[in-house]
Amino acid sequence: MYTLKKETWNTRVMVKISVLSVIAFILMFFEFALVWLAPPFMKLDISDLPALIGALALGPMAGVIIELLKNILNLVIEGSTTGAVGELANFVVGAAFVYTAGAVYYRNKNFKNAIIGLGLGTIVMTIVISIANYYVMFPFYANLFGMPLEELVEMGTMINGKIVDMKSMVIYAIVPFNILKGIVLSALTILIYKRVSPILHN
Q: What is the CATH number of the domain that holds 183?
């Protein structure tokens, strides 16, 4: 298991993690629906970006901690409309993404491993969120708002006629949505990591 190196557990590193967590929390407010790809209740944001940068610069567990603190801040300050299940899913999925990317990159820090890590992270994230939505999030969301699952499926059908049940919702909405999200986050990470990593390493 990859962890932050023992010598890096100091006040400066924890401050960096805290700052990245606050930035990630703020980015959660900037979200938008991709109505041409997925139902409107599925919204894209880039709040995993600071956690990805933290995972690459400070180690995979730093990214996981940033994901955790981001969601705790969101629960405390904004509250939850999903009984905290949404925040739990956000943490689990984001943690899977950033830990995978950070763990691969930390084996040998080079551009190739960064690309491989981000690619594998996208795949792991997509698998985890697909399972979480199918078995936990969608059923819980439907029960919370007193609606049948069929209503959620119908929202997907309006976007893509191939969506006729929960399984096809996962295949034609959840999977492409999260692959696109992973590509966007990976591209942004590649673009800005070298610019901000000296700050995090100093």
A: 1.10.1760.20
Radius of gyration over alpha carbons of the chain, in Å? 17
Determine phi and psi for 28, rounding to 5 degrees: -65, -25
Task: Classify residue 171: in a domain, yes or no.
Answer: yes
Q: Residue 36, class by beta-carbon neighbours within 10 Å (0-12 exposed, 13-18 middle, 19+ buried)? A: exposed
The whole domain housing 129 covers: 7-30+46-201
**pLDDT given for residue 133 in this prediction:** 87
How many other CB atoms sit within 10 Å of the CB of residue 162? Answer: 12
How far apart are alpha carbons 159 and 90 in whole angstroms?
A: 24
Under DSSP, the state recorded for 37 is T
In a domain, 37, yes or no: no
* Lowest-confidence segment of 33-37, 108-112, 171-175 by average pLDDT: 33-37
CB 36, CB 71: distance < 8 Å? no
Cα–Cα distance for residue pair 33/45, rounded to 1 Å: 9
- Please tell me the pTM assigned to this model: 0.86
- Domain assignment present for residue 73? The answer is yes
The three-state secondary structure class of 39 is: coil
Phi, psi of 68 (to 5 degrees): -65, -50
DSSP string, 96-126: HHHHHHHHHHHHS-SHHHHHHHHHHHHHHHH
